[in-house]
Amino acid sequence: MSGAESEALGESERGAVSEAGRRVAVRALCEFTAREGDLDHRFTPAPSAREGIEGHARVQSRRGDGFEAEVALSADVAGLTVSGRADGVDPAANRLEEVKTHRGSLERMAANQRALHWAQAEAYGALLCAERGLESITLALVYLDIATGRETVLTREASAEELWARLEAHARAYVAWADQEAEHRAARDVALGALAFPHGDFRPGQRTLAEDAYRAAATGRCLLAEAPTGIGKTLGTLYPLLAAMPRQGLDRLAFLTMKTPGRRLALDALTDLGADRDSERLPLRVLELVARDKACEHPDFACHGESCPLAQGFYDRLPAARRDAVARGFWDRASLRALALEHGVCPYYLGQELARWADVLVGDVNHYFDDGALIHGLAQAEGARLGVLVDEAHNLVDRARGMYSAALDQRRLNRLRKGAPPALSRPLSRLSRRWQDLLREAEDHEWQALDEVPGGLLGALQQAVAAITDYLGEHPAGGDPALQEFLFEALAFARRAETFGEHSLCELERHGRGRARLAIRNLVPADFLAPRFRAARCAVLFSATLSPPGYHRDLLGLPDDTVIRSVPAPFVAEQLEVRLRRDVSTRLRDREASLSPIVAELAGQYRRRPGHYLAFFSSFAYLEAALARFREACPGIPVRAQRRGMDEAEREAFLAGFAPGETGIAFAVLGGAFAEGIDLPGERLVGAFVASLGLPPFDAYHAALEARLEERFGRGFDYAYRVPGMIKVVQAAGRVIRGPEDRGAVVLMDDRFARAENLALLPDWWQLAP
Fold this sequence. Notes:
Keywords: 4Fe-4S, ATP-binding, DNA damage, DNA repair, DNA-binding, Helicase, Hydrolase, Iron, Iron-sulfur, Isomerase, Metal-binding, Nucleotide-binding. By secondary structure, the protein is an alpha/beta fold. Residues 1-21 have low confidence and may be disordered.
């Protein structure tokens, strides 16, 4: 589709270039121009947002009559409108206050933070002097220790002339950048307005998906699109959203994935569209977001300038690295690393800085949906119009449940108590006693659901958090790293406890003496995800397995006006032989009896058509039993198996075994690393066996989950068991047919597959063999 043809996807008006670059808040201006020195990410216990607000109010309440709080200031400076709110002004003393809250020793505060604070105070001072005609002013940095209530006040005398000169210097530096950004935005929007589809034509079904995705952007709605494997969903959603950016005034796109291979597919699609080529490169800035532990160059060094050479002088070298970055525009993991090392800065934190200047962010779903997510935070701070794409969206329910769950481990506490400093002995002992009280009061079961988060234990936990936080604030070395780990775990639990409700479950598990675990497990992520979907201008969620759509709409909290689409498969029934083995039961009580017919089926299919096969089982124990029986019965057929805890290199070697010209059966676990997200086209995979319905275990937790989902949605068994299980089955079977030329077989082995309610969840184009 040409740029002209793309007009057919929706409206043709092109949005005006944003003038937001000519307005800037004092904080944003200073963060861009005034930071200097080392990167310093040593753990510093910081007040929460609520504590910060309360701290500011406490300082203001201590001031006398006539003190002015939250003073709005604004002025045009070097062609830039600079605005903000000064924390406080004392007209009688001719003093402006900038208030910052902290915990523990001020000496531990990073130098770059102190420089930023002074720059903000100076900027507000310049604005105040200009507005009130002052010749000079006293600037005061007021540091309030949240724990003690003690104020530390640092002051400077400054003339209006020198303050204005400094503010002008900041503004000129920012204006030059803002002008560049406006030019980039204009060039980007012109190029995207004429963006051509990179291939001669769409694949079957791909155009339908693209049109639906564009309409979602044009109408500001969510789209839930089930589209079969092999039609090019990544390009089929990226292309229309990019085309919509200038027409719908979208500032940024976020392409969110569940696994690393999904990021690579998105980056490859963007390369096809011209985002990364030597000549006539599309003026589009693309950033791959990588986890900190994957991007760190020196994992054995502490993250500050005294330890890591890439943290030393980070902010001094950042402007040059940033200028180079925007000139290049395509920042995948390898490119970003090379650029960062060229400038001697940390790759991870350079990426965090570049995120605000990127047009397309490619990263894990947690970067938008998790607490404190970078992409969501940027969009909220900037008021940006964001388009969100979620790949393999059938996984988002489980991923989001994990994001909004937290747990406390009694063993971690017991280990910590043994080596804790004396100052923490009392609060940790108190917490330990509350654990014992809870265990005595609770029923003596291995697993138990509690009606609420235990108040006594939660109170002791909050006291321990405060004590540990204060201790770490006063002791820069921090002591045992386990202390920080426990603090993070406790803070996460306390945060979840604050929002505890019907969307979550509080559970107590016992695994022997001193080995209890208390968890808040999210059951319905919709309550947390719904605000994120509302915050986006549009969202497109796509996958090959999104049936029934009501399951995903309900559990993800999608808006009521979400558009539901099912893209017809480009495949025909003749490409895939689908057989049911109704004489096999994979129920736990029947596992031993199922082994012989399963082995016979695998061997028979392999002998009829030698090639590469995947055989999926519900657990490693079941897999190992079937593998042993198969080796004994069929020693001449090559086999290999997935193992517990395979690392990335082992997984790659496993997949490399599906080489053309070779044959064999690979045994794997349903729902594991090889059941979805892998591409084995043609002769690399000719068939799959699924010896399981993929149902979660029928244990006490899932019984409680079923009851909660039944109460809320009236679909308890389906939402807790049937749908998640059948999604795994269809995903696993979907490895076989990847393109229009593929031919293969799928054998579903369990009598329950023949039930109407399960057959209804299989792809429409499958035709069961008689």
